[in-house]
# Entry
Amino acid sequence: MSDVSRRTTPSTRIHIMALDGIVNVNSLFSIALFIGLTWYPTTDLNSMLLGSNKACAAGTDAAEGLISFHVYSFSSFLFSSLIALALKQAIKISQISCCSSIGNGGSDSELLVANMGHVNQVGLRVGTLVSAFGSVLGCGFLMMALVDLVQIKLGRLSCGDLYTFAAIGPLVTLVPLALVIYVFLVLHAFTR
# Structure
């Protein structure tokens, strides 16, 4: 069995597992987005404020941002999932077409290469990168929607309320930090 076939097969399996992970995470976030969209501030925004200072109530721009960012986030997650599913389908189609072309008398190395299929590694890597980029955008938009939700419930950031900052602080520090780590890991995998 050649070195090339041994290295390529696990690489393709790893790509399939990574694509499965992207689709699973995007699905969870999409469900959360649908639940978030069912809650829409249709009543007076002043009555939704949990605090007592009505001057800090968020305006209609926060409610519009909440809905807009939910839709942008859902679009990004859907884009990312569709790209990932298309890549998985291309891998499976290449495996089927490759395996059907080899007869029963093939050697073990031919069958191993046939099981992997003829996958364009550059296309696979670029597609995975584009799919990961869609997930990162979706997470960013979801974070901005949550900031608007906190402002609707606890008051605008400009009022300087401690509870508003306590709710938004971890959100705007931990999510971007996790996204930076995710981007670096995806770029590292992209170069391998």
In short: The radius of gyration is 23 Å.
